[in-house]
Structure formats: structure tokens, C-alpha cells
Design goal:
- One of its GO terms (molecular function) is iron-sulfur cluster binding.
- Belongs to the NifU family.
- The protein is α+β, with helices and mostly antiparallel strands and 146 residues long.
- The chain has one domain: Sufe protein. Chain: A (Alpha-Beta Complex), CATH 3.90.1010.
- The protein has four helices and three strands, in the order H-E-E-E-H-H-H.
- A hairpin with a 2-residue loop joins strand 2 (42-51) and strand 3 (54-63).
- Helix 1 (3-18) crosses helix 2 (66-79), helix 2 runs parallel beside helix 4 (123-145) and helix 3 (84-98) runs antiparallel to helix 4 (123-145).
- It is globular.
């Protein structure tokens, strides 16, 4: 990756960290998922409103590093309005990107999420980036059981 692209990606990550999208908690019967990364202390509370198999709304709160909170901001933006099945496919694409595997099959516009691809070079930070995504998977999994 060129240093200009690295710089742009750092700016996108810092923008989501300093100005998080969808920060807060949903009430009124929303799914509530708490997860943490004991290795570094990242903690996230994700709330999802899922209706008729679609993620109507997603918000998060928590504490953590810039990677963790920026990823949560990007994830909530990306999955809002998606059918659960598509949100789970997007999570799979994200994990492939985090592992340095081929990931872009062109079916989703990853938008700002691609700024996190450099995290794959830092194995210790991958858990930071995937925390919110794992919370989303757990949340929709719980919802499907009900």
C-alpha cells in the first residue's frame, strides 16, 4: 500500500474514532450484546433492532482503542438496513480482509471499512477490529433463536 493511501486510511479511522457514528444505546426491546477483549481492555455494548429479518438500527457504546471504536462505528453504519443474512456475509468478508485473504467479491461496497485492511499486518490488533463484528454476529444469532 502506498504511504498516501496509508495516510488516508489513518485519517478515516481517526475520523470514526473521534466522531463515531451511531454511538449510544437503543431501547425498546433492542438486542443488547456486551463483549470485551481482555487482552487489551476494549469493551463494547452493541444494541440492535432487528425486525422481519432486517437490522433496522444499530448503536454501540464502550471504551477502547481507536481501531476498536472506529470499527464499531463503521460496522453499525454498514449493517443498518441490511437483511441479517447480508450483514453476516459482510462480516465474513470483513474477517477475510482482517486475515489478509482475498475478500472483495464486489457484492458489497465496503466504503470506509476498507480503511481497516492495514490492521491485518498487526495480528495483535485484529481482535480489536473484529470485536464489534463478533458482537453483531452473536446478537443476530440470539435473535434467530427467539
Amino acid at each position: 500500500m502506498s504511504s498516501n493511501l496509508d495516510q488516508l486510511y489513518r485519517q478515516v479511522i481517526m475520523d470514526h474514532y473521534k466522531n463515531p457514528r451511531n454511538k449510544g444505546i437503543l431501547e425498546d426491546g433492542a438486542l443488547n450484546i456486551n463483549m470485551n477483549n481482555p487482552t487489551c481492555g476494549d469493551r463494547i455494548q452493541l444494541t440492535l433492532k432487528v425486525e422481519d429479518g432486517k437490522i433496522e438500527s444499530a448503536k454501540f457504546d464502550g471504551e477502547g482503542c481507536s481501531i476498536s471504536l472506529a470499527s464499531a462505528s463503521m460496522m453499525t453504519q454498514a449493517v443498518k438496513g441490511l437483511p441479517v443474512e447480508d450483514a453476516l456475509k459482510l462480516a465474513k468478508i470483513f474477517y477475510d480482509m482482517m486475515l489478509g485473504n482475498d475478500y472483495d467479491d464486489g457484492s458489497y461496497d465496503l466504503g470506509d471499512i476498507e480503511a481497516l485492511q492495514g490492521v491485518s499486518k498487526f495480528p495483535a490488533r485484529i481482535k480489536c477490529a473484529t470485536l464489534a463484528w463478533k458482537a453483531m454476529e452473536q446478537g443476530v444469532g440470539k435473535q434467530e433463536e427467539e
